[in-house]
Specification:
Blueprint: E1 4-7, H1 14-21, H2 25-32, H3 39-47, H4 62-75, E2 78-82, H5 87-101, E3 106-110, H6 123-131, E4 136-139, H7 147-155, E5 159-163, E6 177-179, H8 195-210, H9 216-229, H10 236-248, H11 255-263, H12 273-290, H13 294-301, H14 305-339, H15 341-345, E7 349-352, H16 361-372, E8 376-381, E9 388-394, H17 401-407, E10 414-417, E11 421-427, H18 431-441, E12 452-455, E13 457-458, H19 466-472, E14 487-500, E15 506-512, E16 518-523, H20 526-537, H21 539-547, E17 554-566, E18 569-581
Parallel strand pairs: 1-12, 2-3, 2-4, 4-5, 5-6, 7-8, 13-14, 16-18
Antiparallel strand pairs: 8-9, 9-11, 10-11, 14-15, 14-17, 15-16, 17-18
């Protein structure tokens, strides 16, 4: 689906800012478009370092929590960490485990099983801890809503410290200490931090109070990985942690990180937030999705390089298996949607996918949401209850999943989540009624069913040179809340196209502007490009492009400039982000 282009514009004294920070006006405009406005914010964005990250003691409960932990360390009691099965939960678990064990604590950990336990701490895990003579439980990336488990633990005389980053409920869990930046009592300067960040700050504060040396550089890569994979906004201290983590990760002393880089082929390649999110993260996640997330923690605990490589390679294999299952699930879902007019017409896609593992429903839902740009709810058979479907929902801007699911909650067995993502389950016999009800209730505006693409500025490609394109690198790391800069050039005449690559999946598009200057742009959507040209201009014009003959094809192109290095030469190349038929 063709996105609607939105040209972003923010007011600022650009001349003064470009002089003060010695940056190109376009670079200043892009940064301003990320809601950076004051001189202090520009300074933090361009030059912020770890020294600019916020004091852990600004978190409500941090002082009490670390004091309580010091008491438990002195008493020599058994401590158990209860984490979560996603990347944030795994890395947060490892951070707490490493930090506490290096202090001599009697500490172990448990990761809830995605299928048998579900999300977060539960009564079974507390019962197991009691059987193991655990005195103190500390959570990470969960616990803020574990009312029953914490109530049970406290009745049994256990000490419970909650470290979490999720939105708290109206009432607070009755743990001994709760550390969560989103608590109403908090006055923490920045909310969009992940569970691993909270765990890191807990350990950092603990070491400082004990007067112990703290190797901050060792932990930062784990915080960076979690921040990216939990889709935190890359702003304020979260951006600094990722920026520093990317700098430190390749020199990490952790054998698990080194093995994962080797197993994924990233050891000698540039690492970006994107490569963390799309290459490293899914491998860590695959353990919890396909088998057990304990394996991912074991990877980072490894003190033997061969064992670390064995686990890392296994995680890569699990991820490949996960991808093939997901691809089959997406194909099956699309075939059903396209063959059923009722589902295709619905503004909220609700579909059951046979033979899909319930832990992968969210990934398939995300793919369908991208393809159709509609909210998508995907169900699979429950592993534990043959009468249930377990599902995951993914939403779009302008549609609040949590609110809409609440309206039809009488048809659901369980439901929980937020605006953009949710987990649901229902009795199998209620599936059709649920699909009809959630679509009858929806009030999605037509404009909300069109994806949006934000353009930072309308700039001719002739504007860019090595100097200002290299300056754009100051925006890294890019991702959620700090998008890659995107520009647009209009009325470009298509000269010809060349298909390259071993799998013929690279398109080099040659275009000419109104001054006669020519440019080469790269796209990896060969089939989509020629299909669009045929639809907009006809087969004859499409054939001319392929043969290099003169054409009447004119496009508006959204692009990203990059520095290309080849055989010692450096120049500017342009990546196609999107394109439209020029008026």
């Amino acid at each position: 689906m063709q996105p609607k282009w939105i040209l972003r514009s923010r007011s600022l004294d650009y001349e003064r800012i470009t002089r003060k920070f010695n940056i190109d006006p376009i670079v200043a405009k892009v940064i301003r478009n990320r809601d950076i406005e004051t001189d202090e914010e520009f300074e933090m964005y361009l030059n912020g370092g770890l020294e600019n990250c916020h004091d852990p003691l600004l978190l409500d409960g941090m002082d009490e929590g670390t004091e309580l932990m010091i008491q438990k360390l002195d008493e020599g009691v058994s401590i158990r960490i209860i984490g979560d099965y996603d990347v944030d939960g795994v890395t947060a678990t490892y951070i707490l485990y490493k930090g506490l064990s290096d202090l001599g604590a009697k500490v172990d950990y448990r990761i809830p099983h995605r299928i048998t336990d579900g999300y977060g701490m539960n009564v079974r895990l507390i019962s197991e801890a009691l059987d193991d003579d655990i005195d103190t439980v500390i959570t990470c990336d969960n616990g803020i809503a574990a009312f029953d488990a914490i109530e049970f633990a406290k009745k049994q005389g256990m000490t419970v410290i909650v470290t979490d980053h999720h939105e708290p409920k109206e009432r607070r869990v009755q743990a001994d200490v709760v550390i969560d930046q989103k608590l109403e009592t908090n006055d923490y300067p920045y909310e969009d931090i992940c569970g691993a960040t909270i765990a890191f700050k807990f350990i950092k504060c603990l070491y400082k109070k004990l007067g112990r040396d703290f190797d901050e550089a060792y932990y930062i890569p784990f915080v960076a990985i979690a921040t990216v994979c939990d889709v935190m906004k890359l702003q304020d201290e979260s951006r600094i942690y990722v920026k520093e983590g990317l700098r430190l990760i390749k020199s990490s002393k952790n054998l698990g990180i080194q093995a994962l880089l080797e197993a994924t082929g990233r050891k000698d390649k540039e690492l970006t937030a994107m490569s963390i999110g799309f290459i490293l993260g899914p491998c860590i996640n695959s353990a919890g999705r396909v088998e057990s997330a304990q394996q991912a923690v074991e990877l980072f605990k490894c003190e033997d390089a061969e064992e670390a490589m064995r686990i890392a390679q296994h995680l890569v294999e699990l991820n490949e298996s996960r991808k093939s299952i997901c691809e089959a699930g997406v194909r099956s879902a699309r075939e059903t949607i396209e063959s059923r007019g009722d589902i295709l017409k619905d503004n909220v896609i609700v579909i059951y996918v046979p033979e899909l593992h319930e832990s992968l429903a969210g990934i398939v839902a995300a793919k369908l949401k991208e393809s159709y740009y509609k909210p998508a709810i995907v169900f699979a058979d429950s592993e534990l209850d043959p009468g249930l479907y377990k599902g995951s929902a993914r939403g779009i801007d302008g549609y609040d999943l949590a609110t809409e699911l609440e309206k039809v909650s009488t048809l659901l067995h369980t439901c929980g989540g937020h605006k953009k993502a949710a987990g649901v389950s229902l009795r199998k016999e209620n599936l059709d009624a649920f699909r009809i009800a959630i679509n009858e209730n929806e009030a999605i505006a037509e404009e909300d069913l069109v994806p949006k693409m934000v353009i930072d500025a309308k700039v001719p490609m002739s504007y860019f040179n090595l100097n200002n394109v290299e300056q754009l690198a100051a925006l890294e790391p890019t991702g959620e809340g700090n998008a890659e800069p995107t520009f647009a050039d209009a009325g470009l005449s298509v000269v010809r196209a060349e298909i390259k690559g071993k799998n013929r999946n690279c398109l080099w598009l040659f275009v000419q502007d109104s001054t006669g200057r020519r440019y080469r742009l790269l796209s990896f959507d060969v089939e989509g490009f020629f299909n669009n040209i045929k639809e907009w201009f006809g087969d004859a014009e499409c054939g001319k492009i392929e043969s290099g003959a003169e054409t009447n094809v004119k496009l508006n192109i959204a692009y990203r400039p990059q520095v290309n290095e080849y055989m010692g030469n450096r120049d500017v190349q342009f990546m196609i982000v999107d394109y439209q038929k020029a008026n």
